Amino acid sequence: MRVGGAAVEGRAPERRALLNATVFDSARGSLRPRCTLVIEGERIATVTDEPLQVDDAARIDVGGRVVLPGLIDAHVHVVAASHDLAALALEPASLVGAQSSRILREMLHRGFTTVRDAAGADAGLKEAVARGLYEGPRLFIAGRSISQTGGHADLRPRGVRGDGYFCACAGLGLAGVIADGVGEVRRAVREQVRQGADHIKVMAGGGISSPSDPIDGTQFSLEELHAAVEEAEAANLYVLAHAYSPRAVTRAVQAGVRSIEHGNLVDEATVRVMKSHGAFLVPTLATYAALAEEGSRLGWSPAMLDKLAVVRSRGLDALRLARAEGVPVVFGTDLLGHMHGRQNSEFSLRGEALPPLELLQGATVHAARLLRQEGRLGELVPGAWADLLVVDGDPTRGLSMLAEPATGIRLLMQGGRVVRSSLG
After folding, report:
1. Which is it for the CA torsion 96, 101, 102, 105, positive or negative?
2. CATH number of the domain located at residue range(s) 2-70+376-421 in this protein
3. How far apart are CA 207 and CA 180, in angstroms?
4. How many CA atoms lie within 13 Å of 103's alpha carbon, on the beta-carbon side?
5. If you ran DSSP here, which 8-state letter would residue 158 be given?
6. SS3 track for 189-226
7. In this predicted model, what pLDDT tens digit does every residue of 230-263 receive, in sequence order?
8. Which residues contact 177 (CB under 8 A, 6 or more apart)?
9. Neighbouring C-alpha atoms within 13 Å toward the C-beta of 261
10. What is the CATH number of domain 71-343?
11. Is the pTM of this model over 0.85?
């Protein structure tokens, strides 16, 4: 931005204005041309298309470009510096945290000013970002996911018996807490609450990368799922559930789960159940596309690759079914290791099933509602955090500017701070 004729990046003055802006109204899914957006400190103060005197503000003329709310990725694993989750579980927590700092910074620079971590990150990482020790998105965390014995987050090899190998000694990582029975589930949820979780992650069905669970199977009894939801709600939190099959998704939603992660195999009856319970769908197409290209080279077994092929073939169908029923479809990616760099490819992958502005809503206002951050994130409205992107191009025609964020995003701001700018 320009202050006194010089481009300045970093901490912004107390009052500044974006002039000649085409603002994306994420709630309505439409564009508002010729707007002025005033920021005071870290928050948005005014958004108007009426004449406004802003002589007392540092002014940024965006030249008619579109201004978007900062993007939200609602399914990431910021500690997943490697695709080898079992090895990652044995690394020192300090090393995993250091590697995560790079992942966080790169996510922010791709335009994601907020992310929901779907297991792995802890309160220390969240605090490091909040204090500015690490540069990264606003971070909402689950702590460790909760899995039954043999469930999707039980990373123990088949030859290992007992629960101490990957579950008791791990630092940061994606190894889950193993809980069997209502009492153990309650204790596991309470422990994540104690550790500062913003939401609770349960494994309600089989997974691709786990060795001993069928993709169409269910996990946890209904009583266990109800217990997890009850404990989360007692702490004013909510539950997200890993699930693919209609049976697993339906059981989770009927137990009170707020969001379904992945959900590739849902059918019409399942999305009707989701709609009636007010549930969200968080597909993650980018990770399947990445693993389809790289799974064999990374050592995935034929059984894992077979499961991958099944869910990948149904991903776009799930988006279309959810959209037709009116289930909110939220942006998520679920990438691991070096594949994090594909994060923005989710936009082009979803573009085959969703119109561009609806896709943008999934990465802004719908995601904010899922996080229970209405009015604070995902919208350019007075009182919201001044998280925003100024982009080239017309998002009603396509989102190529977000697929190539290094050039497509011309100004990136988080909490009123200019992260990077090429407007000058």
Report:
1. positive
2. 2.30.40.10
3. 18
4. 27
5. T
6. HHHHHHCCCCCEEEECECCCCCCCCCCCCECCCHHHHH
7. 999 999 999 999 999 999 999 999 999 999 999 9
8. 144, 145, 146, 147, 153, 167, 188, 191, 192
9. 27
10. 3.20.20.140
11. yes
